[in-house]
Model the fold of this input.
Amino acid sequence: SIRSTVALIFVKISNSLINNSQFDLVNYVIERMAEAIARFVEGELLNGTSQKVEGLSGLTNTKTAAAATAITSNDLVELQAKVKDVFQPDAIWIMSPATRTAIRELKDNMGRYLLQDDVSLPFGKSLLGKPVYVTDNMSDIAANKTVIYYGDMKGLATKFNEDINIEVLREKYATQHAIGVVGWLEFDSKVQDNQMIAKLVMAAT
Done:
């Protein structure tokens, strides 16, 4: 399998700032690094990187939208149907915030909005009865772009070859009266069942 070992984020911090008791710098750096690592991993799982992590870029279960710059209700219904019924119970939608906004006014054949408010869900929205997750790691609507994933994400296999490593570099920046903090990990991901997940790709221009 293809593996990816990547330095995710590096921070250099002055000792003067560390010693400032009025600011909880340690917890702030930990939180920011955790967010950066999570965002990086999410991006790799959704988009992959050539010759490294494949992620969902290897997905072959595809619905091509009717248009290049607009999504229709039929596109969404047909995308959902690409996932077999047995995998529907844990299915979710993944899209960008702009894509979610673009489908707010879509209705079904009964005149009901496809996108519904649901405060019980993590992002507060459901689409055709399933939770909607939004992330900036997804492309907005544009020709040839993959703009939505739908399905049970257990169909994407992910292996972490070792735990996330956080190292403090004290000597390297000692002459600058500072320390460095670097975080990295090694993992691999690829689609293990194309029946469980489908993607919506916008039409070509």
